[in-house]
Amino acid sequence: MINRYYHKGETLQGCKPYGGVLLFKMLLLGMWNDLSDVKTENYVSDTLSATRFCGLGLEDPVPDHSTLSRFRTELTRNKGMDKLLQAFNRQLEKHHLIVRTGIKVDASLTESPRKPKGAVSYEIAEDRKEEEVPRQEQDKQAISLRKLQGKGVDTDGRWLKKGKRTVFGFKQHDAVDENGMIPGVHTTTANEHDSRGLKPLLRKIPRRYARPGVAADKGYKVAENEKLLSKMKVKNRLMHKTYRDRPLTGWQKFFNKLISKTHRVVERAFGSIKKWFGGGKARYMGLHKTHAQHVLWAIAYNLKRSPGLIVSNSLETTE
User: Fold this and answer.
1) Short-list 55, 103, 40, CA closest to 236
2) Domains in the chain: how many in total?
3) What is the pLDDT of residues 123-175, one digit of tens each?
4) Which of 61, 76, 126, 224 has its Cβ near the most Cβ atoms within 10 Å?
5) Is 0.85 topped by the overall pTM?
């Protein structure tokens, strides 16, 4: 599967030929240990367990950091990351580690360190606000960032006001199943409203995962998403929200409380990614490369949790 995007024997800009599986294993080691490409190269060279995991002998050369970077760029360019996530998840599903009891959806910010300096002169979107920033103001932000092209600023990133803090970067939408595993990932700019992330996210997930129900907080509760779930014949478990002169009924409050309890599994997934892999910070520049980072987090997270789930499932079976 991996070699479909990077075949053994190919060279990228004069790089030595390495198998795609070897390079992908190095990417996983970099994610699991929160390492840069340079540190990943050194880690595989110096750590016997990492060398064996990559399938290398003591006498074999280790791919350098530039080869690793080019390989990730090639996967990103060929849009291979999402397909690899689905390929891994199909294997996990065979072992009943990903369950088809519906999904929970939420978004988390990924802050980019490559932000423009100085004050901004345009309106910034506020997190969880229903009102969209006027298109004219969004265009002003895009034009202002394009002027900084080539000056170390990530011109794909956008500003978002979260509470009293202003964040520059991207937004990661994750779908999580009942086991806390991640079937799909979608990435947007930070200022894009949460509700717009649901449709493209569901396109990346096999419908069998979503059909039992899609649960999400009230940020996703818009008419377009409700029509989408109805058309897909998926159970609508989006939390209700209040409208002007229309408070929540007692049943709607009870429904929201139930969804909120089950929704914690998504928050735990985001928290684990931040704790284990240094999540919440963009390592690379650009929307597509940041999405590749988000998908690598998801693959690394699913694989890291798999042994514990296998043991848990086996204990339940013996009981």
Assistant:
1) 103
2) 2
3) 677 776 665 666 666 667 777 777 777 778 898 999 888 888 889 999 999 99
4) 76
5) yes
Low-confidence ranges of the chain (pLDDT < 50): 5, 7-16
**Residue 265 and residue 176: Cα distance in Å, rounded?**
7
Q: Which of 238, 233, 200, 236 is nearest to 219 (CA)?
A: 238
Asked if residue 215 and residue 67 are part of one domain, the reply reads no
Q: Print the domain residue range for 239.
A: 92-318
Residue 318 corresponds to which tokens in the numbers above? 């013996």
Q: Are 161 and 125 in contact (CB under 8 A)?
A: yes
Q: How far apart are CA 102 and CA 146, in angstroms?
A: 41
Q: What is the pLDDT of residues 222-232, one digit of tens each?
A: 999 999 999 99
Predicted confidence at residue 235, as pLDDT, reads 93
